[in-house]
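With this grant's support, we have settled on a layout for protein records. One resulting record is reproduced below.
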Amino acid sequence: MAVALSAVLAPLAGCAADAVTSAAPSAEPQRREEASDLETRAATGADAPEGRPAEAGADRFEPTRAVLSVDYSPAATHASNQMAAWVERGDGSLLKTLYVTGFTAVRRGYWERPDALSRWVALADPETMGDAEVDAVSSATPAGGRLSFEWDFTDEGGERVPDGAYRLVFEATLFWSSNVRYEAAIDTGGLRPGPLAVGEVRSESGDETNADMVGNASAVVE
């Protein structure tokens, strides 16, 4: 049967070759179209399994706020209990003041106590701030407890900040020139929700006066 089939096909060999040659180009574009369609669907997340993000352009996380919190116990000493919270750009310049105690800002307490909130004063230059601008970010010293300072990812004009490196900072004057800062670095380009690492910087690590006035700092992005 095989011999007979070969005999039948032999006269058609030339025709068959022509047929295959002419059919091949029409199959290849179809395969390319199918591959292109799969790539497009993968890039846009079409048909992505539930609970699994698409590979490209998938569900970018847009944070709504970053919060830095500390425990505060008012100190009984003079030249203490001054606090400020703000956001810095990656280069260390001030982006936005979130909060500052009234004595330092409204009453210009930095004239009487130049060491009070020395980092915030250096960045904010309150001498150049108008009364309305100061009032907008200042209030009385809190009574104590868990304090939280929130940044909504906007600048002082209320505009959403571009992707980049920022720092959420809290500073407290413990006693005269003894200050402590807590800092949380934020990179908005690859940010995911959850806790942030918080670093501590003390101006006078050997001075234990009111060392526990503030502490237990934490930060989170939501």
User: Anything to note?
Assistant: Residues 1-56 have pLDDT under 50 and may be disordered. Residues 72 and 219 are 15 Å apart (CA to CA). Residues 66-221 form one domain.
